[in-house]
## 1
Amino acid sequence: MDKAAFEPKIVAYCCWWCAYGAADLAGISKLTYPASVRIVRVPCSGRVDPLHVLSAFKAGAHGVIVAGCLKDGGCHYVDGNMKAEKRVKALKKALDSVGIGGDRLEMYFLSAGMPDKFVEYTTEFARRIERLGPVGLEMNRE
Amino acid sequence: MTVMATLSLSGDAGCHVILASLHEKLLGLLEPHELAFCQILKDSRDIPDHVDLTLVEGSVRTENDRERLREARARAKILVAIGSCACFGGIQSLCNFVDSQELMKETYGAAIAEAKSLGKNLPEVLPKNIPVREIVEVDFQIPGCPPEPDEVASCLGAILRGETPQLSQKNVCDECKKKRGGDFEAKIRRLTEKPSDLERCLLELGYICMGPATRAGCHAKCVAANVPCDGCRGPADLKYDQGVAMLDALIAADRETVSTYSVATMSAMYHRYSFATSVLAKLLERKDRR
């Protein structure tokens, strides 16, 4: 496949209180982030179930971002972001064994006042996915 | 009067045995109705042209299975998938992540040429093991490996009365009598290890018990006998993916190491009966290389 023609599809699950706020503010501030990022607003990053992440990959996504509030008490629901972090950490390993690669999933912590960070993280992630290219499944068997 | 038929595809006929194990109850259920075709109970050659209710057991593995299923669907008004093979693909779908040619080589080894020549008149094996609802439309599903006789009787009774059969929407844990303490032991145990406390929840003791992700209705029999649930009844709601729900439960219980297992281990552990319908199987099929 031609590398230049590859347009990644990235699904970003953003929590309503912080990450989505940051994305919103990025828009208002006229900052640009990669068009490959599709945002899905969730009430809390702790709501993101492993099934949400895997369904995105099943549907053809090349990368998934889970973005929540800042660590150490930033979460509107006390510890939803920490639960999400735990899940993402475990899911990265599961994606490695499924052959999709844990690099295609990342968790970011933002506050609603960090549009520049949102742009920085999504740009960095989109570059990484572009570099990785399409999902080529190499099965990892025992 | 309802004309009934039962069809057996790739499987072990266990669901037919469950049907027969209803004994007199089955006679009561069938009282005004007719069982026109049932290989285990009746001596008839084929499914009649018009049937009101067909129970299908087993999954689709060969071309013959597929043809017979399509034919049965065309002849039946209501088609019910009975058992986990028909509903989710069953245990035999664990071979789905291996190429079928490779599977033949693995099974027959050096005798593969001989096996192929001997089996040249047999129906062709499909590349994958497929649950019934992926081939034809299914009206109702009665999961379980095997399904509970009482549940089969009540569901069958409901369908014969023209009602929708009701299955439990709860998890096996809701029916389980074991005591839960709230803390989890760090070590993951194998089936062969004896539980240290016979009163306590097996998941807390470190066994991979599929209770939290499995449909109730079996009265947690296996767990009561100190054998961890292996999830034979599929997810409590068909919207969910059984294995992924279990993975989530284990992550929440600080068992992150479970996510480092290989595909073979993961599928056999969390998707033992539902691999064919799982997200995991769909992810393995995904190929972007054009």
Note: The first strand of chain B starts at residue 3 and ends at 8.
## 2
Amino acid sequence: MRRLRAVMAKEFFHLLRDPRSLSVVFIMPLVQIFIFGYAISFDLENIPVAVIDQDHSEPSARLIRDFERSTVFVLKPLGGARREGDFEAADWALRAGRVKQVLVIPAGFAGRIRQGRTAEVGLIIDGSDSNVANRLYQYDQMIIQRFAAGLKGLEDVFQVKTKVYFNPESRSVFFFVPGLVAIILLMISAMLTASSIARERELGSAELLFISPLRSGEIILGKTLPYVLVALATGSFILFFSHFWFGVPLRGSLLVLLLFALLFVLTGLSFGVLISTLAPSQRVAMLGSVLATLLPSILLSGFIFPLDSLSAPLRALSEIIPATHFLRIIRGVAVKGADLRHFLKEGASLAGLSLITLSLAVMRFTRLRRARR
Amino acid sequence: MRLFYLVKKEILEIVRQRELLVLLFLAPIIQIIVLGYVITTDIKNVPVEVVNLSNSRAAGEITARLQASPLFRIVKLSEKPEKAEDVLRRGEVRAVIEFRDSPGRGRWAWTLPEVHILMDGIDANSSQIAAGYVNGIIKDYLQEKLRRAGLEMPAEAKTLIRYNPRLRSINTMGPGIVALLLTILSVFTTAFSFVREREQHTMDTLLMSRLRPMEIFVGKAMPAVLIGLLDMVLGIGVVILWFHIPLRGSVFYLFLASLLYLAAILSYALIISTVVVNQSQAMFFSWFSLVLFLLLSGFLTPLESIWARAPALAVLTEINPLRYLIKIIREIFLKGNGPAFFWRDLLALGGIAVVLTSLSLLNFRRFISK
């Protein structure tokens, strides 16, 4: 225990002696939360749409107005000749990405409505961003369905009432900011420790560690635990910032959240240490920790993409990514006001993951040591 | 010639570390393949609970349709009212679909229940898409009913989706992942270059050599350009051969854009490498910039709405080189566009590359004169 404390003290001094790096650890996440809190959102607004109205009738004007009135679309006039030229201009604008959708109201639109036959509306959507295209398709359907129902006085028949819980305005901030807290926390913790042993190996001071009477477990723990404080401090810092600045609610217990954050940070730090024992130089440690943590925790954790649609093996893979568990926890506790008992499984997974990675790191470190003797 | 030796030294330093080689060439391929399967914005298997409080036949029939649809997974069917909020808090379902009998819904009241979709608003994007699917299923059902009653729908949309007709997410994301990995690998191989030499006190040796500053600069950037291009070829190969994403446009412009992008991003990484004092700072700065580049590039989320929300930050997206590369790559891959369509983006990318390279060179002059 005393020896463990000595290693931790040494690591602490190391941290304090480099205040510039330490301040970077606090400032960068803050800047990131600030920028992304504003910038990242799935909200569709101002989507440019070109309109080709070949009917020029009262109903066609009304349909166009329906599109115009929605906050999603912005009508964009097409340059060039009218009539025949319209299609070419629209095709060009679609290919150039100037518009994302073209609305075509064919001639005879009003006539068919009057005769009681189904009048068709053409929509051409740019599918190159599949998510956006999918959502545009849904909005279109909604607008046109409402338009059609309005013509027959059937609005209330088609009405489906929707109620959104926890986030009634469907603000993306509630989704992304807690997620960002998780991602940033994981990256910070993995990087804090990723270079620790690799650095000692590069500078040659690892030899001293190797021959010291310290047990491998003590060295590994001693190099991990001091950073728990740093990472946890960063975590609470950005958590409070997102609460007070972006109004992300904190409906559950703060204590529960911090408890889980502690576990999560420990998992991230253990990942870093493991990478550090595997990497022969800081460069490798760095690249390794970024490849192992950045993309998977952004893309495979439910941060952006829902995990429901994944196939079984991939869902299993997502379970060994620490961010997956903490994302569920932070969203649940902060936004939904969930409780400790809702997340026992996630907590156990995090604890298990850090235990496994720490033991792997100890094993690997022991092997390195033996190779030197 | 002298330059050649420096490049050779840099490449040797990379090749000598087996782990680094694995990370540079094997890891990206694995990542593209795994991530290719993961990144799907397709919403399927949405877990929902259905609460049927209605006596109508329609409720049962619509439920059967929901059950048959691959879009939903009905976790629980119940006939007792439940507090949706509690159900959603447990997090097992994304939405509760409730059918209720409603008096006074006009002439259709006898056939149709009232439908309520109660959704978990946290993942607003997925919830909205899921709600749209429910709407679609109900609409189709009602239209059939109406048609049987002799009523045609007065207007209907015929939708054509261009460039990616089945809306496969991988088509959208695959080429983007290649651009992303290109960024990660090249930033991390160069951001360390000078700071490492300084930490190991070999920088002075390099400066005392007969190499001109310009040569040192180019020599440090060159290996990363080579690695980047090689990775690009590998990545594009995987994307085309493994995921069968069509490459409809010109390979020449694909590489031209990538080269411009590499010039920009490597100059940026070299600036990092001269302003930081140790390798762990280099790491933090590169990571910070990477996340910034990635999340402000339009790769994952649409950029259009930023102008409405935070115009000041929208400027950041305009000077983000990755944004242009991703746009050009998507256009070349999916739309088969030529430069007539993306010359503006190419020009912007070129401009950013020129500015960053000159900044980086100036900064390097200052760095070695110290």
Note: Residues 96 and 354 of chain B are 54 Å apart (CA to CA).
